[in-house]
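Lecture notes, continued. The same structure-token format from the folding unit now serves as the input rather than the output. Read the line below as a description of shape only.
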């Protein structure tokens, strides 16, 4: 009588499991690189974009009493690098080169002008106005003219980007661009130009009303 012996498959050794994991990781990594290098592959299946956003909701309305007298356009190149201790940049680290373009408005707040700040003579031919100094508004980043020039990422960063879609990936460089644009506006002559234009506007307005002398000064 002959007895058949069936051999059970042996378990995969530990080194084989580790090798398989490494191969899978490398396959995913190179697949991500290929999609990045050949963006046309993304459109192979006819990807379409649909805007399903809801309507914009009005949150508040404020009455404005300021006179926007000047506007400046600024451009800055942001070079932001993030390193990780004890790891080379090729493994984990990012460096982003970003061109940010934005505008800053210079304005005079006419709502702060009181009765004591306006003096008119009896003949209504001469007027003296004392206004607050011009101020600068918050920088507004122009999305249509701001862009990323290059972005270098380490191996772990690329893998993280492949498995997740982070909408705030450029938030850090955008915030830096806004800050640098605001600093550049402070160092420029934008506030002085705003006061000059405000003076010219008020002089032209009051002279059209019959005033022959119009004196405008600025103080804190």
């Amino acid at each position: 009588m002959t007895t058949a012996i069936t051999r059970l498959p042996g378990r995969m050794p530990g080194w084989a499991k580790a090798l398989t994991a490494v191969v899978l990781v490398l396959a995913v990594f190179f697949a991500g690189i290929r999609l990045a290098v050949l963006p046309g592959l993304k459109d192979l299946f006819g990807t379409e974009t649909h805007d399903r956003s809801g309507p914009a909701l009005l949150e508040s309305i404020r009455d404005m009493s300021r006179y926007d007298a000047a506007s400046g356009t600024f451009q800055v190149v942001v070079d932001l690098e993030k390193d990780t201790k004890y790891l080379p940049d090729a493994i984990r680290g990012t460096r982003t080169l970003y061109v940010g373009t934005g505008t800053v408005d210079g304005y005079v707040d006419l709502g702060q002008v009181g009765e004591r700040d306006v003096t008119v003579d009896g003949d209504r031919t001469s007027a003296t106005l004392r206004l607050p100094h011009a101020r600068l508004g918050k920088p507004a980043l122009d999305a249509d003219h701001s862009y990323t020039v290059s972005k270098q990422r380490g191996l772990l960063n690329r893998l993280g980007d492949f498995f997740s879609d982070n909408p705030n990936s450029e938030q850090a460089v955008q915030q830096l661009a806004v800050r640098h644009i605001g600093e550049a506006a402070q160092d420029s002559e934008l506030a002085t130009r705003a006061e000059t234009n405000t003076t010219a506007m008020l002089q032209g307005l009051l002279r059209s009303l019959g005033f022959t002398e119009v004196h405008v000064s600025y103080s804190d």
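Point for the exam: The longest helix spans residues 14-37.
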